[in-house]
Write a structure and sequence with these properties.
By secondary structure, the protein is of the alpha/beta class. The protein has 7 helices and 7 strands. It has one domain: Rossmann fold (3-Layer(aba) Sandwich). The structure holds zinc ion (ZN). The site of zinc ion has 4 residues, from loops.
Length: 247
């Protein structure tokens, strides 16, 4: 019997509190904005954790990294609140410069132990061709923090009592097992994405068209118009398990 039939794919809407971890200030909206707005509409508490300050996210050399970080913090606050987030936490690393995995795992574990989420969302670090170190390391460190957070002797920064996270949802994934109907929350997601105005100095039509096209593709044959695709795993499958890839 396949493990999936036995354990089942965890349902995000069973959570009471969801921690949405993003490497940069706009990743949650782009990858899972419709899902986050849907969860918030069910009175599920949404907490954001942003790992870096987004300070290199421009091609305009006249904008200083410090000014850009400040602008992006404001954009992220408005955007996350628009989707229904009640709390925004920041690790404050410089964009493009997250620390090595062990330090990052300890920091994220510290947040998990304080926030005590029932589910965690994060970009899939096993996305083939993902070249951005911030994304790979944030995904890996978050997955590791979810596994280790429940072990009292595992070190976190700051130290806090252990907390086990039952499920992790990876967005921007090529191996989805969950398709969330975002028809009702699509316009809210797109408004939230557009609030990151510094990221779309031009080309909004192209990005909105692409997001719309992908959402329609994910929804095909499922009885709704637009979907976001995630890989949701029981945390226990994030270590030493051969069924996780096809789960
Ligand atoms: Zn990013």
């Amino acid at each position: 019997m396949p493990l999936k039939d036995f354990l089942g794919v965890p349902r995000l809407d069973r959570a009471k509190r969801v921690l949405c971890v993003q490497p940069h200030p706009d990743d949650n909206e782009l990858g899972a904005g419709g899902t986050i707005a849907w969860l918030a509409s069910l009175d599920i508490e949404i907490v954001y954790l942003t790992v870096t300050d987004g300070s290199i996210g421009t091609q305009d050399p006249s904008i200083s990294p410090e000014r850009l970080a400040e602008t992006r913090r404001g954009e992220a606050e408005r955007s996350a609140r628009h989707l229904g987030a009640s709390q925004l936490l920041w690790l404050g690393y410089r964009d493009g410069d997250v620390p090595e995995e062990r330090e990052l795992t300890a920091r994220i574990m510290g947040v998990i132990r304080q926030v005590k989420p029932d589910a965690v969302l994060v970009p899939d670090p096993w996305l083939p061709y993902e070249a951005h170190r911030d994304h790979r390391l944030t995904g890996l460190a978050t997955a590791a923090a979810c596994i280790l957070g429940g072990f009292p002797h595992a070190r976190s920064g700051p130290e806090a009592p252990p907390h086990s996270v039952p499920m992790v949802g990876f967005y921007c994934t090529t191996r989805p097992n969950t398709w969330i109907n975002v028809d009702a929350t699509w316009s809210r997601k797109m408004e939230a994405v557009r609030m990151h105005a510094s990221q779309f100095p031009e080309g909004w039509a192209m990005i909105s068209m692409y997001l719309d096209m992908k959402a329609r593709e994910f929804a095909q044959g499922r009885g709704f118009t637009r979907a976001e695709a995630l890989k949701v795993l029981p945390t226990i499958l994030l270590h030493f398990n051969v069924d996780s890839e096809g789960y």
